Every structure is written in C-alpha cells, then in structure tokens.
Amino acid sequence: MTKLNKLTIASLLVFIALNKTASAEQSEFLNAIKNINLQSIGANETVEPSDNRSQNINSEASINDKLEQKNKKLQMKYEKLLGSYNEIKLNGGSGNAESQKTTISVLTNEKDKLNAENTALRKQLADATSTLSAMRKQEELSFASQKKELSSLGQENARLLNESEATRKQLAEAANKLASLEKSSQQSAILKTNLLKTPEGKNSYSLGVFYYDKINAEFEKITKNNIKLAPSLMIDGMNDAFNKSLKINKSEIMENVVKIDRIVQSINSDYAKKILKLINKKKYEVLANGSFLVTDKSTSKKYSENEIVTFDMLEKNLNGKPILNTMNTNVNFNQIRDPLLRKVVSEGGKGGAMTLYGKADILYKNVPDGVSPESLVSITFMLK
Questions:
Q1: Is-contact 97 21, C-beta < 8 A?
Q2: Which residues of 149-168 are buried (b: 16+ CB within 10 A; e: fewer)?
C-alpha cells in the first residue's frame, strides 16, 4: 500500500511537471503570436491611379489585386494559427505533453513562416508604392514635355499660317501686276499696229530693218575673223541706248569699239593675210594689239598651283631665220604676272606648243638688233 501510494504520488508529480512545461511553452507561443504585427492592406493603403493617366490604371490595379490576394491568404493563415492556439488552450488539460509539444512546434514554425510572409508582403507593398510613384513622376514629366511641344507646334503653325497669308497676298499682287503688264503690252501692240499703217510708221520700220541688215552683215563679218560676240547682248545694247539706260559707261564702250576695229583692220591687212596663210587651219586668236596667237599643240595636262613651268622660247623671222633661242626657262606658275605668258601656259598645257605671230614693233618692247620693226616675226613657246 505504501509502495502504491509512493508510485501514484511520483506519477502525479511527473504529470504536473509536464503540464507546467506545456503551459510554459503555451505561454511563450501565445506571446509570439501576439507579437506578430500583421497589417491589413485595406482600401486606404491602396495607391489609386491618377484620373488623367489612364495608360497606367491596369498596371496599378494589377499590383493592388496581387497584394490584396496575398493579404487575404496571410489573414487566413493568421486566423488558422490563432484557432490552433485556442484549440490547444481549450484542450490544455487533456492529451499527453509530448503531443502538445509537437503541435506547439508545428504552430511555431507556421508562426515563423507567417512572420516571414508578412515581412515580404510589406516589402512588396513598399516596392510597388515606389514603382508607382516613379511611374507617376515620369508621366508628369512626359505630360509637361508634350504640353510644351504642343505649344511650340501651335506657335509654329501660327507662324506658317501668317507666312502663307503673306505669300498669298504677294502672289495676288504679282498676278495683278502681270495682268496690268499684259494689258499694257496689248495696248502697246495695238498702238504699234495702228502706227505701222501711217507713213511715219512705215518709214521708221523700214529704216529699222535696213540698219539691222547692215549691222547683222557687219556682225557676221567680225565673227568670221574669229572675234567672239554675243548677238543677244548686241540687241540689248541697242535697246539700252534707245532707253538711255546704259550698263557700261561710254568711254569703255568706245575703247571696245576701237579695239574691235583694230582687230578687223589687222585681219584685213596684207601682213595678216600672210600670217593666216602660214598658220593654215590651226586654231588661232587675234589679240587686241593685232597679233595672232596660234595653238600648235594643246594637252589636257594642265599646270597646278606653285608648280614649276619649264619652256623653250624660239624667236625667228617669218622666213624661218632664227633671231634668238632661250632654252629651259623656269618659272613658278603662281609668279607668272604677264597676262600673255599666263595665257600661253594655261592654254597649251604640259607638252603643248603655242606661237605668237605679228609685227616686231608690236611683239617686242625693244626690237632686237638686225630686226626691222615692220618685219613679221614669230615667237614659239615649247612647254615641257
């Protein structure tokens, strides 16, 4: 009996000890659950999309939906955890201590997972809020940029409209002027037609035709002598003289006329005929002093800037008797100041040959000894 009582007492003590251990663990578990700072993500924490930025409504709503779903799952786990705890608490007096310890351990793990998910959810919410804030800021900047660009386009459009209106007015003015000129021209044509029926008109018109034929014949005669002229500008000169609106002063006009006359006389002179017979069909040009520059040979290889030009100069009478030969003369192309020599070098080119024909007193500043001033001579430039 004594042994039985001792055994019963010992068993009771062990049971009490186990109950105390379970109670301690239950109390610790309860405190852990109470320490879970679970926040509900309600409507007041949802970041609402801006009314004037519809392009991001779907993305923001999607983020809020996902966070809300996770929150609901978290709440369910939290409620399940509390339910499990309450079940342990209600059944605290029943069941063995080992089973309670196992249940508490499982619930503790669930509690830890719940804490971790709660922390992750908070981080996701913070990240989502930051992302949406950045998106809104970017939208505001984009909206401001678009507004500025739209304003600029509006100003440019207004400017173009003003220019278009100004151009339209100018075109209208030009059209009016053209119509006025056409009307004036028609009236002038009518007046001329009527005037041509009178003796005064017929005489004037007849003289115009007569003098034009003479001028045209002289023009053809001059051009046949290798003198370049522009027929249209000759007519312009006559019109400008009639309207007293000359584009060249009269002194220069007279110089040009005298020069042309000298050339024509030189070509028609006896010595010119000798020269023309000698040069045959070669290309030539009559210079202002009455001499002839003949192209014996021309090449496409032209001298460049600062290049050294080397040439031989052969001087002789028209009968072939030598006067003077100057060999291997060197000169920098840029330093050629004499217009005639530059013309010879430029037109002849490397390997070309140009010959100058004329009277000795025209070609030489100082006529060489033994050469008559009136004699015909030639100077040939052999370019290397």
A1: yes
A2: eeeeeeeeeeeeeeeeeeee
Triad 272, 356, 379: Cα angle to 5°:
120
- Beta carbons within 8 Å of 224's beta carbon, 6+ residues apart: none
Environment class of 263 (CB within 10 Å of its CB; exposed 0-12, middle 13-18, buried 19+): buried
Domain boundaries, the chain: 17-154, 202-266, 270-383
The neighbouring-strand residues paired with 315 are: 324, 379
Q: Nearest Cα to 219, choosing from 238, 247, 241?
A: 238
In angstroms, rounded to a whole number, what is the distance separating the alpha carbons of residues 238 and 353? 41
**Cβ atoms within 10 Å, residue 237:** 15
* Helices 97-195, 2-34: inter-axial angle, 10-degree rounding: 10
Write out the CATH class of domain 270-383: alpha beta
Are 345 and 309 in contact by the 8 Å Cβ rule? The answer is yes
State how far the Cα of 382 lies from the Cα of 310, in Å rounded to an integer.
9
For residue 306, the 8-state DSSP code is T
Task: Provide the edge-to-edge strand list for the sheet that holds 376-383.
Answer: 283-286, 292-297, 353-359, 376-383, 308-317, 322-332
Task: Using CA atoms of 327, 333, 334, 336 in order, give the dihedral in degrees to the nearest 10.
Answer: 40
Which residues, including other chains, have CB under 8 Å from residue 1's CB and lie 6 or more apart?
Answer: none
Identify which of 81, 82, 86, 73 has the alpha carbon closest to the alpha carbon of residue 40.
73
Q: Decide: 87 and 100 in contact? Cβ < 8 Å.
A: no
pLDDT tens, residue by residue, 216-225: 877 777 776 6
Q: Are strands 322-332 and 308-317 parallel, antiparallel or unpaired?
A: antiparallel
Residues 308/333, Cβ–Cβ less than 8 Å: yes
Q: Minimum mean pLDDT among 284-288, 315-319, 355-359, 365-369: which range?
A: 284-288
Per the structure block, which two tokens stand in for 239?
């019109």
Of the candidates 127, 132, 113, which has an alpha carbon nearest to the alpha carbon of residue 56? 132
Q: Does residue 163 or residue 379 have the better pLDDT?
A: 379
Q: What is the per-residue DSSP string for 317-355?
A: ETTS-EEEEEEEEEEEGGG---HHHHHHHHHH-TT-EEE
pTM score, whole prediction: 0.38
